[in-house]
Amino acid sequence: MARSDKLYSVAAIFDKPDGIIHAAEKVKDAGYKQFDVNTSYPIHGMDNAMGLSSSKVGYVTLAAGLFGGTFILLFMWWTLAESYPLFIGGKPFFSLPAFFPITFETSILFGAVATFIALITVFFKLPYNNHPLHDTNYMKRVSVDKYGIYILAEDEKFDKDEIIELFKSLGASSIELIYLPKEEKYGMLQPKFMLFLLVVIVGISGATYFTLNKLMYMTPFNWMEYQDKSNPQESSLFFADKRSMRTPVEGTVARGFIPYPYKGIAYPKEVLSNPTLPSKEILKLGKEKYLTFCSPCHGDYGEGTSRLNGQFPTGPTQHSDKVRNYKDGMLYHIITNGQNSMPAYDKQISRKERWAIVDYIRVLQRAKNAKKSDLVEIKKESSTNGQ
Ligand code: HEC
To answer: Which of 27, 100, 127, 294 is most deeply buried (CB count within 10 A of its CB)?
Structure first.
């Protein structure tokens, strides 16, 4: 390649690994800072001989990782707690544990990508795509069987003749002056290269588009995401209230669903009797459904301890005399129809499950108001502890 008359560095070739280690030590001791060594394989002890400190690239990774983690946490807070809060199973809007995996992954992603970009730009000086050492005799020889060292002209102590003397005294087998190449800074941005890049990009995209769309007719070109249906939470252009999620049409009955005839808050005159026997199995079902549907507002033990942090009126306790004296049928009635601000659960909880919840509430009530007669005496076993 064409060279200018600006000196880049003075380079020396050594024949033996010992020689290069010795030379690196001496160059460091002489006070030079801008120098480097080229060998065709790693040489033990070279880092020490050159006085290299550890790489700075770790700081870039750390900073970018921290930035990525903070950014994504704020982003999740903004989307999930601020801009479009979605109420999911009684969890707080900003629910930190659920955000850990994404925060972790985003930190890694930012760290890795920033490290790569920093390496090729800052550390390898990307717009210069040809290193001044390329295409020199020096580089040809150190890539095969010689050991080389060069001191950059940028070094504060740089003095051509002094360095040549130093290299000679260290026993260099040959010394080479390396000049900067002529105007190659933005080699990458030359029209020829840009044209090449354009052809590659257009070619690959075109071929991919043609193959996927015309030959294989597959995702994303089968347009399956455009269907005549509404996805959950999607707004609707058809209904006046713009909701696409609809309650069942008035008067229709879903298969396997038996309509509940008693509307309103008042307890129906007909006595609703509990058809379940509180077996272990039923109580297990009731507990499961209670914890799923009722506990967010009424608390795990029905004590009126909502975990919704005021997002919804707190459900009252199940241990008031009023509720304890309700008939089973009244509890069933409330679950089915709701009561004032409490929503109806007939569409979400089956009949059997509703009665099971009633049984489970009875268990909670008895547990919280146990009488002495409820206690079972456990006889002390006399010989178990061996005394
Ligand atoms: C979204 C919150 C919420 C959920 C979930 C909820 N409730 Fe309620 N519940 C309330 C509120 C609020 C009231 C008080 C309504 C009122 O002002 O009459 C209430 C009232 C009640 C009452 C009447 C209490 C009284 O003192 O009159 C009972 C019984 C009851 N709920 C049982 C249940 C059961 C069983 C479930 C689960 C199937 C359930 N609730 C789910 C909020 C809720």
So the answer is: 27
Task: Please give the pLDDT value at position 121.
Answer: 86
Pocket of ligand 1 (CB under 6 A): 293-294, 296-298, 312-313, 315-316, 320, 322-323, 331, 334-335, 339-342, 345, 357, 361
pLDDT digits (tens, 9 = 90+) for 118-133: 998 887 777 666 788 8
- Over residues 148-157, the pLDDT tens digits come to 999 999 999 8
298 Cβ partners below 8 Å, 6+ apart? Answer: 304, 305, 306, 315, 316, 317, 318
Which atom of ligand 1 lies nearest, measured to the CA of 345? Answer: 38
d(C-alpha 107, C-alpha 101), whole Å: 10
d(CA 19, CA 173): 10
Cα–Cα distance measured from residue 33 to residue 152, given in angstroms and rounded to the nearest whole number: 9
Q: Identify whether the C-beta of residue 133 lies closer than 8 Å to the C-beta of residue 99.
A: no
Q: Which of 20, 327, 287 is nearest to 146 (CA)?
A: 20
The dihedrals phi and psi of 120, each to the nearest 5 degrees, come to -75, -25
Tokens 């001044």 identify what position?
A: 132
Task: Specify the length of the chain in residues.
Answer: 387
Of 126, 159, 133, 165, nearest in space to 148 by CA: 133
